[in-house]
Amino acid sequence: MPTTTDCELCATPGGELLWESALCRVVRVTDASGQAFPGSCRVILQRHVAEMSELDAGEAHRLMAAVLATERALRKALRPDKINLASLGNLVPHLHWHVVPRWRDDSHFPAPIWAAPQRQAVPHDIGSTDDLRRAIKAELSTVTDLT
Question: Distance between CA atoms of 40 and 25, rounded to whole angstroms?
Fold first, then answer.
């Protein structure tokens, strides 16, 4: 895996590792945004690339299949009102997708998670990390060729 020494996502997992393949890894967000938005995950390309357009068509398709499988797993396991998908990479220019479960009573809904909070969040019990890991693994096992 080509890396750069100054890239956070090359140097660290980027969260709590839930699943990985040669192509990408799925992590549970463990920073402050993950605490505010429980169940938030990132799907991170294993090699250092900044933009989706740098991938060939097959690799882009496989990465999006992993993103969508992660979304399906979170929808099944957590039953959120909505899932937000985002690929920004402005601060960390290493290709990754945010997969964020949202509830109507979260602190920012319906605004993006990066906006100002609109209210105090209502806590949601999302179960254990092991439960989330099992859900992610089960859904990703249905996706072919994530190498």
Answer: 14
